[in-house]
UniProtKB/TrEMBL annotation:
It comes from the Bacteria. This is Aminopeptidase. Residues 375-579 form the Peptidase M1 membrane alanine aminopeptidase domain. SUPFAM superfamilies: Metalloproteases ('zincins'), catalytic domain. One of its GO terms (cellular component) is extracellular space. The keyword Nucleus does not apply. Gene3D superfamilies: Neutral Protease Domain 2 (1.10.390.10). It comes from Alteromonas profundi.
Length: 805
């Protein structure tokens, strides 16, 4: 029997002309599949990518804090196109005072690391941080950017080249045809930036020349050599200016790099050391060999040896030779301050059975680094390999220095360290411990994404930062779930309802708030996709399929979206569209709940129910007070004026209604009568739940139903319930007669990133909050200074502590 619900239909009424299909297919947005990238999200049968090999001879001039180097580049044209010129990235040019980065930096405003602000009224002074002043002065006092002294082909002929900001076009002597290669040389040099001054991804850090710190520098070198820009099937040359935020997309190749540094330096680099006998002592080589099978970390250079090494300098030099195959970049670090520990990670398999996990850090790293750096590396590989592929390289390294966190093939830079106390001990806070573990997991995770799965970070930051943040959250919660890893759905609700949100698909340099946009929101989206929408089995299979399809290749967002759908067998276009292409947020409100009871059509039953329902309504206040005053009704005082209707009401049943009921039963088909009579007999509860989609982002509706007997039940309604009416829907829930529903909660586990959990309760709950007493503070303005008292203050001398006032 059809139940007519006029009150529910009003909730899902569609206004003429405003229908929006949240479930329309995403193919209208994604690029058309082709021979390079097919419709399943796989590399096509004619997929190609370029290869670039480098031989580099670099010298660190420690006193000048300068790099001088020569490189030989061999470019393999695997594309179907003939190339007349090559584009090369010159990232160090970003630090020039005439760079696009410098000229387009705004004063204050969103997206700047600041602080630099100015009040709208101009009544208060603008603010310029000491860090901003330091950066300006460093750039003014130092000549930054590349000096390119030679660009020649292998026959010694100059190649015409033009520098365009952070790029350089090199014109080839003859066009480079498909399947051919070209070799040429570049001599270059640059002054290394002080990382603490300019806030870069690499640079040097100088330690004070005093008894506590002992002087010396740590050098972190990345984006340090002219590198070929990527040439792709989807964009051709990826020659977008490097402004500072958008990272890189590069070509895989083989590297041979000779690094000449002071003889007392310890060097960490991408690749495998080729000449250990030239740069390491026999003791150090023996320790390194022992570390391969050790159960705990082994020091190759002990902290005590590192401290002794700091005390003396040398004019002698050593050259460390490294080789790295099939990597997309090369970075290194050098310092006489480094202690060095290592442990072999026996991952088995055919790809790379043994990986050397190693950490390099100064005495300032202390016990914090001794305990957690190398262990975090190994934990990362153990977890990430389950979700993707075996770690593909022979080494994985964590280096302490001025960079808070940055990744390159086989090497990462990580910042947290201990604090030296007055008693000579070194301690660290809980925040610093959590930071170190978290940043090592995150940066080593980047060796998988994007150092192996080679996404375009300049265009789609989320493809490496978001995917990696999702996985580092998985790894982190397997390390210690009590650490706030920042990838839970509740961690993104503030951003999603803010006015500064932009779509995840926004190019990195244009994103207003990079952290929540490129890291947290895509990580949360994938977390929800795994735990709430697909389930772990389907998600994990599809995600691993994506990772293995695109190892050492260059995926785009469409490849990821298509692979996840094709491998899971679930249409997710609504999910990608809502989470990645819009700024909609999740806000599902439960507006009302109606309890219905099926009419039996038997007038003796139904009329009695209606009479009881009428009697249950609150009595008129006037009538109640009349009764309290003892006022008798007129019909009670004069019985002779009573008639039939004083004994019978509108709920009195007559034979006419009974005959109608009999005819109703007789007209039913046998199966209809059987179904109807069973429903009447069971007398179940029919509840209609009305929901509004206030945020615009369609999501599954997850319900916790609480019954009168105290039991609870969970119901998960797929997002497709919104497919016809994306703004409001109603859902019928049927329960047994003895299962009386008393309350409903939407998203009880906070797993959908719903921004307003208070409209998730029916009936509404009292909202918990706090209040704090405070004491008014004096106004901090010139006219409110107590000058009569302040002029009595004596000037502090250099050898005494000043008055706190």
């Amino acid at each position: 029997m059809l139940i007519y619900l006029p009150f529910a239909s009003a909730a899902i009424k569609q206004t003429k002309g405003d229908f929006e299909d949240k479930f329309r297919q995403l193919d209208e947005v994604l690029p058309t599949p082709n021979v390079y990238r097919n419709a399943a999200g796989e590399p096509g049968h004619e997929y190609w990518q370029q290869q670039v090999d480098y031989k580099i001879d670099v010298k660190l001039l420690e006193g000048k804090r300068r790099i001088e180097a020569s490189e030989t580049i061999t470019y393999h044209n695997n594309s179907p196109d003939t190339l007349k010129y090559l584009w090369i990235q010159l990232d160090q040019n970003k630090f020039r005072d005439d760079s696009m980065s410098a000229l387009t930096t705004t004063f204050g405003g969103i997206g700047n690391r600041g602080p630099a602000t100015q009040s709208a009224s101009g009544s208060k002074p603008a603010k310029l941080s000491m860090g901003a002043l330091r950066r300006q002065q460093f750039v003014e006092d130092n000549e930054l950017g590349y000096t390119i002294s030679r660009v020649e082909n292998k026959s010694g002929t100059d190649l015409h080249h033009v520098v365009v900001g952070t790029l350089m076009r090199v014109d080839l002597a003859t066009p480079l045809k498909p399947g051919k290669k070209v070799t040429f040389d570049i001599d270059f040099a640059f002054n290394i930036v002080e990382e603490d001054a300019v806030s870069a991804r690499a640079g040097y850090e100088h330690f004070p020349d005093d008894e506590r710190e002992g002087g010396n520098d740590i050098f972190l070198l990345a984006q340090w050599f002219p590198r070929l820009a990527a040439y792709t099937d989807y964009e051709a040359w990826t020659n977008k200016e490097f402004i500072g935020r958008g990272e890189f997309t590069l070509e895989f190749g083989n590297y041979e790099v000779d690094i000449t540094v002071p003889a007392d330096h310890v060097v960490s680099a991408t690749g495998v050391l080729q000449n250990p006998r030239d740069v390491l002592t026999k003791t150090q080589r023996d320790r390194l060999k022992k570390a391969e099978t050790a159960e705990r970390t082994v020091f190759v250079v002990t902290p005590e040896e590192a401290i002794e090494n700091e005390k003396e300098g040398t004019t002698k030099l050593k050259t460390w030779r490294f080789k790295a195959d099939n990597v997309r970049d090369f970075a290194w670090a050098s310092s006489r301050k480094f202690a060095w520990d290592a442990r072999g990670y026996q991952q088995g398999g055919d790809t790379q059975p043994l990986v050397m996990a190693m950490s390099f850090y100064p005495k300032e790293g202390g016990e914090l680094w001794q305990k957690y750096s190398t262990e975090s590396i190994i934990h990362t590989m153990d977890v990430y390999s389950r979700f993707s592929f075996d770690y593909p390289y022979p080494v994985a390294q964590s280096v302490n220095g001025p960079v808070g966190g940055m990744e390159y093939p086989m090497i990462t830079f990580n910042g947290p360290r201990t604090e030296l106390r007055d008693d000579g001990s070194r301690t660290y806070s809980l925040a610093e411990k959590r930071f170190l573990i978290g940043v090592v997991i995150h940066e080593v995770g980047h060796i998988y994404f994007p150092m192996t799965v080679n996404s375009d970070e300049r265009q789609w930051t989320w493809m490496d930062e978001g995917l990696n943040s999702f996985l580092d959250g998985v790894a982190g919660r397997e390390w210690d779930p009590n650490i706030p890893w920042g990838v839970e759905p509740r961690d993104i609700t503030g951003y999603m309802k803010s006015q500064t949100q932009v779509p995840i698909m926004t190019q990195s340099d244009s994103v207003l708030r990079l952290g929540p946009n490129a890291y947290t929101k895509p990580a949360v989206a994938l977390n929800i996709l795994r735990e709430t929408i697909l389930g772990r089995e389907l998600f994990d299979f599809a995600f691993k399929e994506y990772a293995q399809r695109w190892m050492f290749k260059r995926p785009t967002p469409s490849d990821f979206f298509r692979t996840m759908e094709e491998a899971s067998g679930v249409d997710l276009d609504w999910f990608w569209r809502g989470w990645f292409y819009t700024t909609d947020h999740v806000d599902i409100s439960i507006d009302s709940v109606y309890k219905l009871r099926l009419n039996t059509e038997d007038p003796d039953i139904d009329f009695a129910r209606e009479r009881a329902a009428e009697q249950d309504k609150p009595k008129s206040l006037t009538v109640t007070r009349n009764e309290e005053e003892g006022r008798r009704l007129w019909v009670d005082r004069f019985e002779d004026i009573s008639d039939f209707y004083d004994e019978n009401d509108r709920y009195t049943v007559t034979n006419k209604e009974r005959n109608k009921y009999k005819k109703f039963l007789e007209k039913l088909e046998p199966w209809e009568r059987e179904a109807f009579e069973r429903a009447v007999r069971e007398d179940k509860n029919y509840y209609v739940l009305n929901f509004s989609n206030l945020g615009g982002l369609v999501m599954p509706i997850i319900l916790e139903l609480t019954y009168e007997d105290g039991t609870k039940e969970e119901m998960r309604i797929p997002a497709e319930i919104w497919r016809r009416t994306p703004k409001a829907v109603s859902k019928l829930i049927v329960t047994e007669k003895n299962r009386e529903l008393v309350s409903v909660t939407v998203d009880p586990h906070w797993e959908t990133a719903d921004v307003d959990v208070e409209n998730n309760h029916y009936p509404r709950r009292i909202i918990p909050s706090r209040v704090e007493a405070y004491k008014s503070k004096p106004r901090n303005t010139y006219e409110y200074r107590d000058l009569m008292n302040d002029v009595k203050t004596e000037l502090d001398t250099d050898d005494e502590e000043g008055d706190d006032n």
